Amino acid sequence: MARKRFLSSILLIGMLFAMSTVAFATNDAPDMPAEPAAYSVTTNEYDIYTHSRRLSNKELSNQGMSETHINLIKSDAIENELLERASLPASELSDMGYSSSQITILKNYNGEPIENKPELRGVFADMTAKFYKEVASSVTLKVRVYWEWSNVPLLAGEPIIDLMAIRWQGTNTNGQSINLAFYSATSYANANYYSRSGEYKYSNRLTIVCDSPYDHAYAKVPVGSGDSDQYGAYYAKTGNFYVQVMRTGTDYIKEAAFVFAYGHTVVGVSPSLSLPVSFGIGFSVGTEKMVEMAIRMSNTGHITEY
Fold first, then answer.
1. Rounded Cα–Cα distance for residues 53 and 69 (Å)
2. Rounded CA separation 14/33 (Å)
3. Sign of the CA dihedral 117, 120, 125, 130?
4. What is the pLDDT of residues 267-287, one digit of tens each?
5. Residues 6+ positions from 230 with CB-CB distance below 8 Å
6. What share of the chain is helix, strand, coil (3-state, %, to 5)?
7. Which of 5, 43, 106, 114 could form a disulfide with 86 if both were Cys (CB 3.0 to 4.6 A apart)?
8. What's the whole-model pTM score?
9. What is the rounded distance in angstroms from the CA atom of residue 97 to the CA atom of residue 196?
10. Domains of the chain by start residue, with CATH
């Protein structure tokens, strides 16, 4: 079966790379915000796959994608996965978190290329990312980004590793650029793992890498936890990225700009950052940018769109 060959290929490729290390896991309640977000953005998974498929093999190759990866993306593996889900009883699909309208769409699906069936967008997962103020003063700023999938993404197995990153730029009270240094003592990231039926299982602390302390930090997110039940592997449904930065000299902070991006890996490769000169975030080939959003936060904690 094409799907099995596809998933086997993903597993073989994914096993070649190390997974993000986890500091600890807890079975306490998930780390979720209670207050409204200052700014948020939502993207649908369907758009990722159809975008890649619209590109020619030459265009994908020019972007650095190997022939194997191109063949995987353009194979019928996604269609086979959808057909397999469509064959499940409605009660089981409901237990997996699908709504009645999503179940209807799946049951009416007959294996057509997904790019020719725009209504399928309704069964793919939305990803939403939200910005929050944690700490704000003239000497330090701390932001929180909370992200969540609306339901199980199509590719959510253990070999799939996602990547999220934050960049920042500081401004002093005279309107001049200043260095703001990453403060590791109070910065952290986590992922909350759920069963495919929507039951919270545990939270894993993720390792943050900061190889440029005045510019950015990132963390890898193992999408599959390695544990499972009868409906499939537990997956990282929600998570958080807390970043605190400090002034490095005597200048007071007026504000800082922060940009967050989440990359969802569409093949079993080890994701990496690709940082443009402009204030943005890119990812290596095989990892599609699900969301990217930029904000400004003042020393009083006021957040506006960048």
1. 12
2. 32
3. positive
4. 666 788 888 888 999 888 778
5. none
6. 25, 40, 35
7. 106
8. 0.83
9. 7
10. 2-18+44-122 (no CATH), 126-305 (2.60.40)
